[in-house]
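Subject: Protein record for review, amino acid sequence with backbone structure tokens
Why sent: The fold of this protein is of interest and is recorded here as tokens.
Enclosed: The protein record, placed directly beneath this head.
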Amino acid sequence: MKINTIAVSLSAIAGLALTTGFTNYRTTNVTKQLKDTIIHATGNPIITHEYTADPAALVSNGTVYLYTGHDQAPVKRNGYEMHNWLCFSSTDMVTWTEHPSPLNVKDFAWAKDDAWAGQVIERNHKFYWYVAISHGTIHGKAIGVAVADSPTGPFKDARGSAIITNDMTTDTKISWDDIDPTVFIDDDGQAYLCWGNTICYYAKLKANMTELDGPIKTIKLPHYTEAPWLHKRNGWYYLSYAYEFPEKIAYAMSRSINGPWEYKGILNEIAGNSNTNHQAIIDFKGKTYFIYHNGALTPDFGSFHRSVCIDYLYYNPDGTMKRVVMTSEGVKPVK
């Protein structure tokens, strides 16, 4: 049987599975590995043939690259099952190309499992992907970094070891405080890594993007849970994060990456049928986008079968951000 025939057959099976309320995750994985797939979003969620979570986005050379986790838990399972990360690209925010999975937990020889949230950033024509994983020998979650020459990968472990392990952060006794890395490069070229559950950590990165350059510091934020995201606009630094549980998204602002940070309020309400909320904020072709996930595709256990959505984000004249309106229509194509 020809590969194209296999791809068509598997796509049909996957579509039938969604229609009947059952998804064969391994089937959709095989389909994705065969070739790039074009997706025409008709609203939120933007991807409906498989589950996507914890979005991060990168703008490079006129294209948006969307990186997501991949919820693969069996139907009705009340828990996370995530083994690889997914990559999509678009030039209009509506038509997306799904690329073969560029990174898997198995690409980190020191890791055990759990392909949790991460973010990709570009520097010196290379792409660095910071991800949260369960460490194989050091108890708890850890942060690894992978590198590629292309935004679509393939990515490979850039260090051969974790950049952050649970024994490096002792402000809390939980084993999952080293998750949800976000990375930011300031105007002066200094890069920062920010992460954490219950405590928000941050540290400078060396120019090679694979080593810390100084001590790990903490940022005190009201009701901080996880999912930090850093961005900058018109001299203001913005730090958005998941707030309480079930999670909303709140944010703070500062004139310096080192603070002080002033809490500004709720940015995004609880995302329907999902206990978690995880955001990316990007500017693209004159508009600002708020990318997040919800549990809209699954009536039960949506928190473990999440789907990425996109809506607009707007600023007030004083630089504060308006509360995001979550919609089923999503965004329109941008030229």
Observations:
- The radius of gyration is 19 Å.
- The mean pLDDT is 91.
